[in-house]
Amino acid sequence: MSLLIAIVGPTATGKSSLALELCQTLNGEIVSADSRQVYRYMDIGTAKPTVEEQAAVPHHLIDVVNPDEDFSLAMYQSRALEAVHGVQRRGKTAFLVGGSGLYIWALLEGWRIPPVPPDPALRRELEAKAQFEGGEALYEKLKEIDPAAAERIGTKNVRRVIRALEVCQQGTPFSELQVKKPFVDSVIVGLTTDRDDLYKRIDTRVDSMRKKGLVAEVESLVARGYGLDLPSMSGLGYKQIGLYLQGKTALPTAIQQIKFDTHSFARHQYNWFRLKDKRINWFKAEEGTTEAAHRFVQRFVVN
RNA sequence: GGAGGGGUGGGUGAGAGGCUAAUACCAACAGACUGUAAAUCUGUCGCCUGAAAUGGCUACGCAGGUUCGAAUCCUGCCCCCUCCA
């Protein structure tokens, strides 16, 4: 059986198109690792593969929930794992492709996510507490029951303090539940490019999203009743265009903001995918990369 | 030609004699991350040295001056903007 082939790296380096070509020649299917392409109707802003591309090669973990539904790392992990196993059972090669570092590593490293589902009532209560008494109040509470977790999270990160408290409520400290044990063997390919080039690629892509109708896409989401306060609408592009539609910014400002925020996102992605990480086999995103990557990947594929 | 306003670190823009290598925001750079993750949070950000504390150097258009001390006050020059002719 073929190894799971992961294709990672920052946005706009051509992961999807590389994956598409490799799948066609190596009899593969794509399991997306993109925290935004899971939402239906969010196509342009998430640079989702087109219907033609999805018809050419089977894609999984795309369009799995509506924009007003909850989605989470745990949901991603179990569904993606299921998809990978499904592809392999069919005797094909699974390609895990995407830029969401958390999702990628949770799958590749086999994180055993604490089986404590979100408790909305508790979260609301703690959020209110943080609002009135300040984040420190929650932090102190966490420090008492799980000092190790508190130490790592810090006073200010209310969202993560709340999740830690939520997990601790079940009895075992959060910090003791963070176990890694791989589910599948894998090979990781990374696509990278120079900072300047990366920013240029991003800017070009954002401009093309605008031309393809990003504004209309956000308008139609709002018209369907998906409010701008939904987590799904906090993604790059949607958030800024949302502000424009509310009259809070001009369109050119919003577009520029998307570019800047996407630069920042790409930088953030390098925190998950480090150039010095020995597990990742890096390729420069440029002419001829597909051939080189193909030659590399082929060794791990059994047909 | 006349009258006003203004030139501050990569950008916007505060500061109106010492507390200022200079608020804030943006950009940029680095980092954390186990059920919201394209989220949330942290650090750096004039130059040299250093792990850091420190130390040294150069800085608020340019050139002088006043002062123990100037981005801040004075003089001259250059440039920009607005209004009047």
Write the layout of secondary structure elements.
Layout: E1 4-8, H1 15-26, E2 28-32, H2 51-56, E3 59-60, H3 73-89, E4 93-97, H4 101-108, E5 111-112, H5 120-133, H6 135-145, H7 147-153, H8 158-168, E6 179-180, E7 186-192, H9 195-212, H10 214-223, H11 238-245, H12 251-272, E8 280-284, H13 289-298
Parallel strand pairs: 1-4, 1-7, 2-3, 2-4, 7-8
Antiparallel strand pairs: 5-6
Helix pairs in contact: 1-13, 3-4, 5-6, 5-8, 6-7, 6-8, 9-12, 10-11, 11-12
This protein binds one RNA strand of 85 nucleotides through residues 11, 34-36, 45-46, 70-77, 99-103, 105-106, 109, 111-118, 123, 152-160, 163, 166-167, 174, 177-180, 195, 231-232, 234-239, 260-265, 267-269, 271-272.
What does this structure look like?
The protein is α/β, with parallel strands linked by helices and 303 residues long. It has 13 helices and 8 strands. The strands form 2 sheets. The protein has a 6-stranded parallel beta sheet, sandwiched between helices. It has a two-stranded antiparallel ribbon with strand order 5-6. α5 (120-133) crosses α8 (158-168). The mean pLDDT is 96. The structure holds one RNA strand of 85 nucleotides.
User: What share of residues is helical?
Assistant: 40-55%
H/E order of the elements?
EHEHEHEHEHHHHEEHHHHEH
Calculate the terminal CA-CA distance, rounded to whole Å: 8 Å
- E-strand count: 8
Radius of gyration: 20 Å
> Low-confidence parts lasting 5 or more residues at pLDDT below 50?
none
Number of helices: 13
Adjacency order of strands in the biggest sheet: 3-2-4-1-7-8
Looking at how many chains there are and whether they match, the oligomeric state comes to single chain
Morphology call: globular
% residues in beta strands: 5-15%
Structural class: alpha/beta
Rounded mean pLDDT is 96
Query: The biggest beta sheet, please?
Result: 6 strands, parallel
